[in-house]
Design brief:
The strands form nine sheets. A six-stranded mixed β-sheet has the order 4-3-2-1-13-14. It is about 25% helix and about 30% strand. The protein is α/β, with parallel strands linked by helices. Pfam families: 5_nucleotid_C (PF02872), Metallophos (PF00149).
């Protein structure tokens, strides 16, 4: 028997082959292309070859289309599970972004599924059927394959509490230690599908990120015996490796790749050889059935994206992303302006999330807003101390390094995953970084209303809810310090701002300086 574990992960709602930057854009990724490749990988006339398709999470959030469905056309939400059925998915895993629009919406998204959702480390006090199965056991020709589903335990730190009603996320390693021995008795092959990634280098076992628990794939493989194969995700990496001799895949994001682990079994149903691979979808034609399923709502969404919102006097286009992060930018200043207007605070922070953020054209549409502000963030107002703020700024200052007199991005923010979204720029304070100083000692000026900020001084700041919960390794920000949260997504707040201010002037801020 040969088992082929075929996986998608972190599709993030990129269903059609487009990044939505324009109505006619064609991209070399998307679930529709992945669907064609999955069909090719699963087609076989050989009864001894058993393809098993798994979706590893972060499926229903992340693109303008997912936002449009969640906020404008929830009746279309079962589309996601119908698409998974089209790909013959036999097990689904919850990603952290599955919870961004609440549990009722998530239940609607999965309402047409023909497959189980697996949630071994998610405890549901309300005992909903959606989270009832920790694993599934599939059988063919006498061979049994167990699939254990795990979700990064950090969801509770990031997500709005109202979206996690009755849910508790347990440590994935301890959960696996509980289930894997039982599954070894029940099945011939044990597979872990984990919406999380590898926190250590597969070859050297050296940490590649802070060992804070967000990603624990390496720990699972090092500490839990009995795993035959592991599918990972969350980090948006393209991986096909072996760790401790165990095959591991991770297929990137946006449907860029499809992962496949091949397991060869002997007559005793024992795994004898393994292989891990990923396949790019760029040369696969979009699957016609998938495109037909999404056609109506996709067309409606494209019309919505072209809705005019307002006009920019000046330029908010981002031409050089490193320069914008180093010297601030009118677009960043505008986002902070929207945040402060929405909450009434006079300090706010935002990130230039990635190097694809274009900023805003002169005539702003919803398309530009969605392409520039790519996350469904909500805002939180948090009261912190001056010492907290200084520590947060030191974390920001660590984003930069000096190399031969030139400013570069600290590799910590680039590998093993691009994390530009961790670096924030603030409005409402005056501050200066000196990059010639050691990391942790780079904030050489920090003023509020023209006066130096004192360590014990109370300050109120607006942040997105991810950062307000400490996301991105900002422990000085905590849920317990949040004064209140806004229920409205930032993209809606931006649209609302234009409704009140149809003409916005682009202003280059001067409150932030960097010495190097």
């Amino acid at each position: 028997m040969q088992i082929k574990l075929i996986s998608t992960s972190d599709v993030h709602g990129y269903l059609a082959p487009t990044d939505y930057s324009s109505r006619d854009h064609v991209a070399p990724f998307g679930l529709s292309r992945a669907a064609t490749l999955i069909q090719q990988l699963t087609q076989t006339d050989d009864d001894t070859v058993w393809p098993i398709v798994i979706d590893n999470g972060d499926f229903v959030q992340g693109s303008p289309l997912t936002y449009f469905i969640a906020r404008q056309h929830q009746e279309a939400a079962p589309l996601y599970s119908r698409l998974a059925n089209r790909n013959h998915v036999q097990a689904g895993i919850f990603g952290n972004h599955e919870f961004n629009y609440g549990l009722d919406f998530l239940d609607l998204c999965e309402s047409a599924r023909h497959y189980p959702m697996l949630a071994a480390n998610i405890e549901d006090q309300q005992q909903r059927t959606l989270f009832a199965k920790p694993y599934t056991i599939l059988e063919r020709a006498g061979v049994k394959v167990a699939i254990l589903g795990l979700t990064t335990q950090f969801v509770g730190r990031w997500e709005l509490p109202a979206h996690l009603d009755g849910l508790k996320f347990h440590d994935v390693v301890e959960t696996a230690k509980h289930f894997v021995p039982k599954l070894r008795e029940l099945a011939d092959v044990v597979v872990v599908a984990y919406h999380g990634g590898l926190e250590r280098d597969p070859q050297t076992n050296q940490p590649t990120e802070r060992l804070n628990g967000e990603n624990r794939g390496s720990a699972l493989l090092n500490e839990v015996p009995g795993i035959d194969a592991m599918i990972t995700g969350h980090q948006h990496r393209r991986l096909a490796v072996k760790v401790q001799g165990i095959p591991v895949t991770q297929p990137g994001m946006k449907g860029q790749n499809v992962g496949m682990i091949t397991l060869d079994l002997n007559a005793m149903h024992q795994v004898t050889t393994t292989k891990a691979e990923t396949f790019s979808v760029k040369d696969a034609a979009p699957d016609a059935t998938t495109m037909q399923l999404i056609h109506t709502v996709n067309t409606q969404m494209e019309d919505w994206l072209d809705t005019p919102l307002g006009t920019i006097n000046g330029s908010m286009l981002v031409q050089d992303h490193l320069d914008a992060r180093l010297h601030n930018h009118p677009y960043i200043n505008f986002i902070n302006q929207v945040e402060m207007a929405a909450t009434g605070t006079d300090i706010a922070a935002t990130a230039l999330f990635n190097d694809d953020v274009p900023g805003l054209k002169q005539h702003v549409t919803m398309r530009e807003v969605m392409n520039s502000y790519v996350y469904p963030n909500k805002l939180a107002v948090e009261t912190i101390t001056g010492a907290d703020l200084k520590r947060a700024l030191e974390r920001c200052a660590s984003y930069f390094l000096l190399q031969d007199g030139h400013v570069i991005v600290n590799p910590e923010f680039l590998n093993p995953k691009l994390r530009h979204y961790i670096y924030d720029i603030y409005s409402g304070i005056d501050y200066t970084f000196d990059l010639t100083q050691p990391i942790g000692h780079r904030v050489v000026q920090l003023d509020y209303h023209g006066q130096p900020v004192q360590p014990a001084q109370a300050l109120t700041v607006t942040l997105n809810h991810y950062r307000a919960g400490g996301g991105g390794n900002y422990p000085m920000y905590q849920t317990a310090k949040i004064q209140h949260q806004l229920p409205t997504d930032m993209t809606v707040l931006i649209a609302d701002y234009f409704a009140k201010h149809p003409v916005v002037t682009a202003t280059q801020p001067t409150n932030f300086k960097v010495h190097y």
